[in-house]
Amino acid sequence: MKIGILGGGQLGRMLIQEALKYDDEFYTLDPASDAPCHNISYFTQGNFNDYETVLNFGKDKDVVTIEIEHVNADALAELENQGIKVVPNSKIIKTIQQKILQKEFYKAHDIPSPEFEVMDGSSDEIKMPLPFVQKMNTGGYDGKGVQVIRTAEDMKNMWTQDSVIEKLVDIDKELSVIVARNENGETKTFPVTEMVADPKLNLLDFNICPVFLSEEIEEQINSITEKFLNAINSPGLFAIELFLDKEGKVWVNETAPRLHNSGHQSQEGNANSQFEQMYRVVKNLPLADTDAIIYSGMLNLVGAEGFSGKVIYEGMEDVLRMPETYVHLYGKTETKPGRKMGHINVLADSREELMEKLVMVKGMVRVIAE
Ligand code: ADP
C-alpha cells in the first residue's frame, strides 16, 4: 500500500521505522530538505500548508495521514472527495486545528474541559475573572501561543488575535492518554502517562508510565476517552492531554490528532508502541495490545542553551552502557536551543527506581554543537 504522510519529522520517522517490518511504501512531504524522513522514505520537499502541494502529493496514494496537525485540511477534504482515504479525516483535523472549535467540540460532547470564552474582538470584552490563560486560536505549538494573564498589568501584553480565554486550572498533575480507533470502529486506549514539564522551555521533560490513580480518577478518564472516541467519527490515533486539578477533577487540556511525544516510552515499555498502533489504524487492521509491561519513562534530548550548529551528543557512550536504556535519535544534524533532537527511554521495576534512573541519565548527556 502507498501510505502518504504529511510532515517528515521524527514522529513520521518512528512510524516508518516500526512499520518497515510490514510491506508498504511510505511517502513523506516536508518543507525541510533534510527532514528526519528525507532519507528513509520517498520524500517530496514541499509545503504541507499549501492546497495544491497537498493535493498533488495525495492524489496517487492509497491513504494519506499526518504527523503534524498544521496542514492544509481543505486539500485533505478534496482528497476525500476524490475517494482517497484520509486518516484522521479532514473534519476532525479542522476542528482540532482551531482552539475555538476544539473547545466547542468538548462542550458539545459533554467532555470536561476548563471553562472558556472566545475573544474575537478586543480584550475589553472579556468577562472571565483574572487570572486566566490566553490561547491563540491558530498557530500555537509547543507552549508558544499560550500565556497566563494574572494581573490587570499583564492584560496590556495580551495578543490581539482571535483567542480562547480559559480558566486557569490549579494543576496537580499533567497526564496524557493515547487512544486509537480504526475504520471498523474498534478502539484501544494506552495506559495513562504522567508528564513533568520543564518550566523554561515548555517542552516535556520526563514522561512516566504507568501512573497509579484512584479508581475515581480512573473512572473520570475512562469516561473522557469513551466520549471522545464516540464523538470523533473518524479513524485515528489521538493524544488527549489532561489536567488533574488539586481537587481530584480531570479536565481535557487539548488533543493532538496524531502520534505524540507523551507516547514515546511505549516503544520499549508497552506490549506495542504508539507507532505500531498508528500503523494499524492507517491500514484498518486489528488494533494492538497496549499493556504496560514494566515501568517506563522518557526524557527528551533537547538542544542545550547557547549551542547552535552541527550536533554532538556529549556523554552518549555512558548512556549506552546503561542497562534497560534506549536511545532514539531523529536524524537531525543541526542543533539549536530547545530543538527536540531525540529521546531516551528507560525501564525499571518501580517508579522510584525509574525516577532515579531518569534523573541520572539526564545528568549524563548534553546536546551541544561542534
Ligand atoms: P501547547 O499546545 O503549546 O502545548 P498547551 O495548551 O498544552 O499548549 O499549554 C501549554 C502549557 O500551559 C500546559 O502544559 C500547561 O502547563 C499550561 N496550561 C495550559 N492551559 C492551562 C490552564 N487552563 N490552566 C493552567 N495551566 C494551563
From TrEMBL:
| Keyword line | ATP-binding, Ligase, Nucleotide-binding, Purine biosynthesis
Per the record, the pathway is:
Purine metabolism; IMP biosynthesis via de novo pathway; 5-amino-1-(5-phospho-D-ribosyl)imidazole-4-carboxylate from 5-amino-1-(5-phospho-D-ribosyl)imidazole (N5-CAIR route): step 1/2
**Keyword ATP-binding assigned:** yes
GO terms (BP aspect)? 'de novo' IMP biosynthetic process
Q: Which domain of life is it from?
A: Bacteria
Q: Which reaction does it catalyse?
A: 5-amino-1-(5-phospho-beta-D-ribosyl)imidazole + hydrogencarbonate + ATP = 5-carboxyamino-1-(5-phospho-D-ribosyl)imidazole + ADP + phosphate + 2 H(+)
EC number per UniProt: 6.3.4.18
Q: What class of enzyme is it?
A: ligase
- A Pfam family assignment: RS_preATP-grasp-like
GO MF: 5-(carboxyamino)imidazole ribonucleotide synthase activity; ATP binding; metal ion binding; phosphoribosylaminoimidazole carboxylase activity
Which NCBIfam families does the UniProt record give? PRK06019.1-5 (NF004679), purK (TIGR01161)
Task: Quote the subunit structure annotation.
Answer: Homodimer.
From the Swiss-Prot or TrEMBL record, give the protein name: N5-carboxyaminoimidazole ribonucleotide synthase
- Annotated organism of origin: Chryseobacterium wanjuense
Identify the gene encoding this protein. Answer: purK
